[in-house]
Design goal:
6 strands; binds 3-methylbut-3-enyl trihydrogen diphosphate; Undecaprenyl pyrophosphate synthetase; binds magnesium ion
Length: about 250
């Protein structure tokens, strides 16, 4: 595909998007690792490894673009049902990433948090994640949230259970329940909702990601497979977002 902006360098695009005011929160469904590998006659795990480099790239790009929150969908609840060798390779990569990158992330002022069902992770994966979170906890430039073993239906169901327990205990009346009560019980805590959702690999679906929080996100789908996603792609997605008319159900002014 020819890029009409091929002659424009990244710094020029960056200064344009900084002048427009970047989105506070960008969420990404990082998809297409398997197809990237297949196109090259490689095993799927090689696609996941290449995807790890794209994670590094997009984190740097988000920091440059002054995005405050970057949420990356790394592994879904449904992904547990993939073949055991692929799940094993993904978990090994996660541990490798957590160990190899934590010092550099900390130096760059990037705070990493992980959300999802940790109980399903191995003890070594849980430990690697805990160390990654602890090492980077002092960061304040960019918050990176990694969704691992995550599914939005499970998250919302758990929030409903928590509300039901409070009602049963008499500390909350069903008639007083507001959206904010549910919001507060989601794994995403007090982060602002995503402004922009990017999905790579040309798939037009949400795949059980942040169903509640994406209510008013702008959606950007690119054909680019995740391992090929660069900071330039991120900047283009943000520029596209900046051209949108976010109406939130109102009328344009
Ligand atoms: C995304 O790439 C990574 C994960 C879901 C863990 P895929 O592995 O889904 O790649 P495709 O969609 O098969 O190409
Ligand atoms: C979504 O991708 C999950 C992640 C990117 C981690 P999938 O490849 O699992 O989603 P589907 O199967 O295309 O819906
Ligand atoms: Mg996929």
């Amino acid at each position: 595909m020819t890029n009409p902006d091929a002659a424009v360098d990244n710094s020029e695009i960056l200064s344009r998007l900084l002048a427009n005011g970047p989105p506070t929160h960008v969420a990404v469904i990082m998809d297409g690792n398997g197809r990237w590998a297949r196109e090259r006659g490689l095993p799927r795990r090689r696609g996941h490894r290449a995807g790890m480099s794209a994670v590094r790239e997009v984190i740097k790009g988000a920091a440059e673009a002054e995005v405050r929150h970057l949420t990356l969908y790394a592994f879904s609840n449904e992904n547990w049902d993939r073949p055991a060798d692929e799940v094993g390779a993904l978990m090994a990569l996660l541990e490798e990433y957590a160990q190899s990158d934590r010092d550099e992330l900390a130096r760059a002022g990037i705070r990493v948090t992980v959300f999802g069902d940790r109980e399903r992770l191995s003890a070594t994966a849980r430990r690697a994640i805990a160390e990654l979170e602890a090492s980077t906890s002092g960061g304040g430039a960019l918050d990176v949230h990694l969704a691992i073993s995550y599914g939005a239906r499970g998250e919302i169901t758990e929030a409903c259970r928590s509300l039901a327990r409070d009602c049963a205990a008499g500390v909350l009346s069903p008639d007083d329940i507001e959206p904010g009560h549910l919001d507060a019980r989601l794994m995403t805590g007090d982060w602002p909702d995503p402004d922009l959702l990017i999905r790579t690999s040309g798939e037009y679906r949400i795949s059980n990601f942040l169903l509640w929080q994406l209510a008013y996100a702008e959606i950007y789908v690119t054909e680019v497979l995740w391992p090929d996603f660069t900071r330039r792609e991120l900047f283009h997605a943000i520029l596209d977002y900046q051209g949108r008319d976010r109406r939130f159900g109102l009328v344009s002014t």
